[in-house]
Specification:
Layout: E1 4-8, H1 16-24, E2 30-32, E3 48-50, H2 60-73, E4 79-83, H3 87-97, E5 103-107, H4 112-115, H5 120-123, H6 129-133, H7 136-139, H8 143-155, H9 160-173, E6 176-179, H10 182-192, E7 197-198, E8 222-226, H11 235-248, E9 256-260, H12 266-275, E10 282-285, H13 290-299, E11 302-305, H14 314-321, E12 326-329, E13 344-347, H15 352-360, H16 366-383, H17 386-401
Parallel strand pairs: 1-2, 1-4, 2-3, 4-5, 5-6, 6-7, 8-9, 8-11, 9-10, 11-12, 12-13
Helix pairs in contact: 2-3, 3-9, 11-15, 14-16
Length: 411
């Protein structure tokens, strides 16, 4: 049986990609910048390498060091499965150190810091000296190296064009390229000139999100928002629209908004809830286990998903599986999940006004929401299966290891 190892930037926080990797890599060793146990606990997997060489904010010297550490760790492995960036570059650097192993690159999203101007500030926020020193407990003995690396990147930044070239070289070296949606596959083709096989990142526990016994879930007057609190997910827009909707629709007086997540904008979201009108109707939760999250999806009347250029849209899929319709931005991979007018609403160029109008109408749409929720449950069960995802991943690993494996992937 082939032995595969997994490379992923970091497990510092748990989003859709991290849960998916965790669920599809049972028994596989994992190399990452840092591992943190998932919310809800669970045994630490065997074979984890925490190389502490930098994740998304790293540079070429960090990548080279990561490659040198990964090379001996990968002894005895047949294939490396690199998820996202810069893991794909780590794999290419490791190949420079020893006999190269074939690489399957699963692209969850091309690196926003290199190709999306709007994401630059979020991808590389300004770090004060105090914040860097505060990382001491996190980086441990690696703190001096981390400080020097951060200082070097600020005093002598590497041009983005150079980083893009390194990224492209690593992608070209991969034996197989996978993408988490047709939207991502199109971006891979446009940026790298490579075809990518679409493998939807269906989580192993998706069926557990379904209402028990197949009966319609008991709904509450609850609007749910789930995601990493970043600019691209627009949590502050959610709050602004909710305030406007509550002001114009008396029927929402008995409703509440629950926001689940963490991330760079968490302090700003907390402050907005504290200072904004209707704060009592908004609750904020983080560190939620998968079981608790499933229960929230089932209880919600609707889930709002505002991701811009969302590569896949796991929140939309989980909500659909729980029998809850979705209000979503008609962008990225989300339209591959939500069927507009059938399992939810896809709205282009959502702003606070348009979202507030949609939210204000919810109290009068109980029958529509119930119909959409039932359709969403059926659709998710019919089109998204974990077994098909794992079979596709296994096939890609086998194909990459085959003699003479070509550096291309068919759709």
């Amino acid at each position: 049986m082939l032995r595969a190892g997994v490379l992923h930037a970091t497990f510092e926080s748990w989003g859709g990609a991290e849960w998916f990797i965790h669920q599809t890599s049972a028994g596989m060793p994992i190399a990452t910048h840092r591992w943190s146990d998932p919310p809800g606990g669970g045994a630490r997997p065997a074979g984890i390498l925490e190389h502490r060489c930098g994740a998304a904010r790293s540079g070429p010297s960090d990548w080279a060091r990561a490659g040198r550490l990964i090379a001996p760790w990968s002894a005895g492995l047949d294939v490396l499965v690199a998820h996202n960036w810069p893991a794909i570059v780590w794999a290419e650097e490791a190949g420079r150190c020893r006999v190269s192993r074939p690489v399957v690159w699963y692209c969850h999203e091309p690196p926003a810091a290199l190709y999306d101007e709007a994401a630059l500030q979020e991808a590389a926020p300004v770090r004060t000296a105090g914040a860097l020193l505060g990382d001491a407990s996190f980086y441990g003995a690696g703190l001096p190296r981390h400080l020097l690396s951060s200082l070097r990147r600020r005093l002598s930044p590497v041009p983005r064009e150079v980083l893009r070239q390194r990224d492209a070289v690593a992608v070209r070296a991969a034996a197989i390229v996978l993408a988490n949606s047709r939207f991502t596959a199109d971006r891979v083709r446009a940026l790298y000139g490579r075809d990518a096989r679409v493998v939807y990142p269906v989580p192993a526990d998706l069926t557990s999100f379904r209402p028990p016994g197949g009966a319609p879930p008991a709904k509450e007057p609850l609007v749910l928002w789930v995601g990493r609190m970043t600019a691209a997910k627009r949590p502050l827009l959610m709050l602004k629209a909710w305030e406007r909707a509550c002001a114009q629709a008396p029927g929402l007086a008995s409703w509440r908004l629950v926001m689940v997540g963490d991330g760079p904008l968490f302090p700003a979201v907390t402050e907005r809830i504290r200072s904004g009108p209707g704060g009592a109707a908004v609750s904020l939760r983080r560190g939620v286990s998968r079981g608790e999250l499933a229960a929230l999806y089932r209880a919600a009347a609707v889930t709002v998903h505002l991701g811009v250029r969302e590569p896949f849209g796991l929140v939309a899929l989980e909500s659909a599986a729980a029998g809850t319709p979705v209000i979503a931005e008609a962008d990225g991979g989300t339209p591959e999940i939500v069927r507009d007018g059938e399992t939810g609403w896809l709205l282009p160029n959502l702003d606070a006004r348009a979202l507030a109008e949609r939210l204000a109408g919810l109290p009068a749409q109980a029958d529509t929401l119930a119909r959409m929720g039932a359709a969403a449950d059926r659709d998710a069960a019919a089109r998204f299966r974990f077994q098909e995802t794992t079979a596709a991943l296994a096939a890609a690993i086998e194909e990459a290891h085959a003699p003479g494996a070509s550096k291309s992937a068919s759709k």
